[in-house]
Amino acid sequence: METFRAFRSMVRDSLGHITHGSKVYHLWMFLLTVVMLIGMYAYYIQLEQGLSATGMTDRVSWGLYISNFTFLVGVAAAAVMLVMPTYVLHDIDFKQAVLIGEGLAVAALIMCLAFIVADLGGPAVAWHLIPFIGVFNFPNSMLAWDVIVLNGYLFINITIPLYILFRHYQGKEAKHNIYVPGAILSVLWAVAIHLVTAFLYQGLQARPFWNNALLGPRFLASAFAAGPALIILVLAAIRKFSEFKIPDKTIRKIAIIVTVAAQINLIMLVSELFKEFYAPTHHSESAIYLYFGLEGKNALMPWIWTAIPLNVLATVLLTVHKFRSNFKILYFACFILFVAIWIEKGFGLIVPGFIPGPYGKIAEYTPTWVEIWVTLGIWALGAFVFTMLAKTAIGIELGKLRYRKKETIQSETH
C-alpha cells in the first residue's frame, strides 16, 4: 500500500513539475503543441481522403513515413551505447547521461510506432499488428518480428528508468540485482530491433537495392553514429537550459563512440559504392538512379549529394582530436552527421528500392504537404514526450521531487 501511495505521489508531483518552467520552456512546449495540432489536421485530411492524399503510389508504396521509421529505429537503439557502459561496465562517467538516453529511446520508439500507424492509412488497420487478435502471421512474417522487438524494447526502456527514478524519488538506491538483468537484456534487444528491421528489407529478393548482406551491419553503424550524436546535442541543450550538470568528460566519451561509428559507417558506404559501380549490372539501376539519375529522372540526387559531403565532413571533424575537443565544432559535426544519416537512411535507402519498378518503369516519389506536416507533427510529439520525461527525470535526480510520507498521508486524510 505504501508503495502504491508513493507511486501516486510521484505521478502527481511529476505532473505538477512539467507544467511549470521558464518562459523558454513554455515557449518550446507551445511551439511543439502548435506543430502537433497542424500535424493532426493533416492526418485528418489523410483519414478523409485515404493514402491518395500522400505522394505514395502502387509503384512507390513506402515514402516519408517509413523513411523516418527506419531512421528512428536506429536512434532508439543508440541508447544501448550509454546503457552498456553505465549498467554493465559500471563506468560512472556515463551515469549522468544514461537516463536522458533512455528517455530519448522511449520518445524515438513512440515516433516509430506513430509512423507505422500513419503509413497504414489509419489506426483502425493497426489491430492486425496485435498478436492473437489480428493477422499476425508469426513467426513467418518479418513484420511480426519487428512488432515484437519494437514493443519489447519500448517496454524495457520504460520499466528500467521508471524503477530507478521511483527508487530515487523515495530517497533510496536502486537495487542492482533488479535492474542490471534488464539492462543486459536491453543491450541484446537494441541490436535485435535494428537487425530485424534490416532483415525486413534484406528478405525482399525482388528489391536488389536492399538485398545486400552489408545492410544489417551498416544499420548498426549508422545508428550508433546518429543516435549518440543526437544525445550529445540534447545534453548540450540540457546543460544550457537546466541546472543538471553533465560533465565534459561524459560528452567527450560519447563523442568517441560517435567518431568510431561514423568512421565504420563511412567505410561501409565506400564498400557499397564499390559493389554498385565497379562492375554495375541491371541490379545497380536503383543506385544509379539515386546518385546520377536514370532516364532523366533525378529527384533524389540533390538529397544524396548533400548527405555524402556532410557525412565526410562530420567524420573528418570528429576524427581530428583538436576539432572534437572544441565543443562548438563537436556540436556542429554532430548536427550535420545527424542530418546526413537521416537522408541516407531515409530517402537514400527506402525510395530507391522501388525504382525502377518490376517492369522497368520509373515512377518518382515526392511527398505531399500532408505527409510533411504529419511527419513534423510526429517529430513534435516525440520532442514533447522526451521533454516531459527529461524534465521529470532531472527533477528527481536533482532532488527537487521527493516523496514526503507524512505530508502525503495528512493531505489524503484532509
Automatic annotation (TrEMBL):
Transmembrane stretches, start-end: 24-44, 64-83, 104-130, 142-166, 178-199, 219-238, 250-270, 300-320, 329-352, 372-396
Xref: Pfam families: NrfD (PF03916)
Keywords recorded for this protein, A-Z: Cell membrane, Membrane, Transmembrane, Transmembrane helix
Transmembrane helix recorded as keyword: yes
Topology relative to the membrane: Multi-pass membrane protein
Subcellular location: Cell membrane
UniProt record similarity statement: Belongs to the NrfD family.
Descriptive protein name: Polysulfide reductase NrfD
Gene, per the UniProt record: nrfD
